[in-house]
Amino acid sequence: MPLPLAATLICRNEEACIGACLQSLADCAEIIVVDSGSTDRTLAIVQDFAERGFPIVLYRRDWPGYAKQKQFALEQARENWVLSIDADEWLDADLRAALPGLLEAPAEVGGWRLPRVLTLYGETAPPPASVRPDPILRLVRREGARFDEDVLVHEGLVVEGEIRDVARGLLRHERGLRLDAQMPKEILYARLKAEQRIAAGERPSVLKLVFNPPLYFFRIFVMRRVFLCGAPGFIHAMTGAIYSFMAEALHFQMAREKRAK
């Protein structure tokens, strides 16, 4: 019997990774896929899984932004529990085995943070077990859960009730991009972050500009123990620091442009 669980994911041109994602969702009663104009084999792969009996419901929808697209996907779910997952992520066997117990959580539990690990560029296996996963809220009760649509990037779920951490299994993030492919994405995320701050009326900070990038690097490289991954781990942490610098610097520049108008 399928689990009383709906999985929701948004996609566009994800042919390289969406198959592994869908395969890991085989236990779900619903799989909501929202595509925003794929031109590669993404839709063909989704259709193949649907023909194999996966409970997929596909929507085609223009791109309104990350949070709004994920909120739309969430609103299509019918099961009491919803798993929000990205197309380049998948559940490992231990996490899939833990799902039935997570769905039987007491009524006061509104959501679960899943331990997510990134397979770094050039690697074929996840980081060593001693590298600390990044806990991320992805499994929630549908009632009382929503995405904050004012958040333009790194959108997150907001839930009612207690949030607990999953102790077993991993949410695997498999898109390890080479730096020249990753940096345009980081620049986009930094611009959206700066736009979000400007819209909220936040003023740029010299302290954040100077100290946030090295602190970001320290949090990833040292506190999460990514230094155990060698050079790929250093590159990953430094990429995060560059993103942090770009977000703060763009905030300064956009604020100056706004004042000049």
From TrEMBL:
One of its GO terms (molecular function) is transferase activity. The chain crosses the membrane at residues 226-246. Keywords: Membrane, Transferase, Transmembrane, Transmembrane helix. Residues 10-95 form the Glycosyltransferase 2-like domain. It holds the Pfam family Glycos_transf_2. InterPro entries: Glyco_trans_2-like, Nucleotide-diphossugar_trans. Belongs to the glycosyltransferase 2 family. WaaE/KdtX subfamily. This is Glycosyltransferase.
